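Hi support team,

I submitted a single chain yesterday and got back a structure, but I'm not sure I'm reading the token output correctly. Could someone confirm the output below corresponds to the sequence I sent? I've pasted both exactly as they appear in my results page.

Thanks,
R.
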Amino acid sequence: MIVSELYDGQGFGNQLWTYVFTRVLALDKETQFGIQCAEKFKGLGFLDLDMGQQVTGGSGPEGGPPTELPDGIEHYYSERVILHPKLDVDIRTLDSGFQEVIDNTKIEGIFQAEDYIAHRKEDIRRWLRYEPKQLDIDFSDPDICVINFRGGEYKGNPNIFLRRKYWSDAVAHIKSANPKVKFVVITDDPPAARRFFPKYPIRHYGIHGDYQAINTATYLIVSNSSFAFFPAWLNSRAKICVAPKFWAAHNESDGYWGCSYNIVRDWTYLDRDGSTCNFDQCTEELAKFQQLHSYMYEQKKISGALVVVSSFNNDLSWLPRYSDDYLVFEQGSGSGVPPQLDRQKLRFVPHSGSNFKDYFSYIIENYDSLPDVVFLIKGNVFPRHVRQHVFDRFVSSTEPCSISDSKQHSPHFPLGYFDKSGKYKELNNSVTFQFPAKYFYSLNDLFYFFDSQFAHTIYSRFSIGGQFVTTREQIQTLAKSVYEILLEIVSHNGKATGYTCESFIVERALDRLWSDKELRIPESSTLNLTLAKNAPQLQTLRVRLLLALLSNIAKNSPIKFSKFLWKASTNRVRSLRNFISY
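Hi R., thanks for writing in. Yes, this is the structure output for that exact sequence:
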């Protein structure tokens, strides 16, 4: 069975795409289908859909990935997402990975490509039959043009809310084909529509009536909303359907489409200058754009490195796309594991709450046979920690570095900040974390354990998110026994969640343990873990006073202070930041 899920946050059009694609894919795979949370369908009472096999069990957040797969489902696959590297616009293309989806898989995505479903168009027409309702306008009149105006939440997003010029150009295009045409506006937002179309009748019949009007009219002008796709696409009367060129990117595109597969055969596309183009012209133009900007679309590959992934039910659909050489430590049930992932490279381990436990376990086990380059990353590396196009910049890295993205974090100075090189620095005020501690309460405790003469720094530099490109040479700067100690201190909890205070401390320490040549870490024979006790006070009076001042400022008004500090340009502010940097 192929399963997908309907969510409260989806609109009717998005839900219908999920349903149709799931059923088409199952039909192509010659298996059953089922819709999880079918009761959330917003077309109930209008479309009497066959929801397939009953789906029981399963849970997870809105939009996935699941924390638990439905009963009988063994795999999870999410559609490949491609974001514009500068604008974060979704420019995804057809995902060939669906060809490899096997039975008993839950799928996730938006799926809104005609090429995914066109071969089943007559089946879809049958699935989406409905009983017509009586409306006050006869939309089968051959001279009527329906304008499907999308308002609502679109109004608050100038990137996708279509401008007046699009509508006026579209009206002019329809009039040139039929001077007798009569326009009727079908909309989810009558007040906004009246401001755009004061002379035309405006109707909102609800989902049933609005769908029927679009599905019946001879001429159509649609917005860049998924609501209109199926009624327009299945409209056998329509002579002309005008749509915005570049779809969701109509207002700002320089050639890309949002999404790249939102081009429909037999529709007429209208550019910002009022010019029109058909399907063949649009696809040809897009192909040239993609060729000129191949870096935006091509799937990047990690080669010459092993990818070690620490996962807790994370969506791992991305991993086989990036690498063939990987090892996954799965701390959960594996509900985010795609069918393409090699099960021989998947290791189920207890939930520790720490990615570092998995990292150190791998290092200890393979210390004498490490590959030249190792990626140590989390299963939710993007979008949780790093935007995908930023992650792509690291795939060819062969030198040690932190995998981080300053745009994904909003530190409040003086608690933390990114320096000019992009490194994250956090105030080292010996803060403790609200989790069980056995050996160390603070970062200073840990460094003092390894080197009683270590040089205290006001700010500690670390890889925020705890993800690295590292090398055999860098890893082996520390003895194997040091990793055994680090493994013990991040995993002593032993409870279901497994979080320890030391896990957060080690996250802040590892970069310095690897890179600070001034640290004198002895051989393991002289290192003996003891239960935590108060660490010696190592700071000078000057440092203690400064830490107290910065901590107090951050505690009382971090947001207000950070806005002031980042925008200010006085010499005092510059001097302060120079003083605390190293």
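A quick pointer for reading it: Residues 406 and 526 are 39 Å apart (CA to CA). Let us know if anything else looks off.

Best,
Support desk
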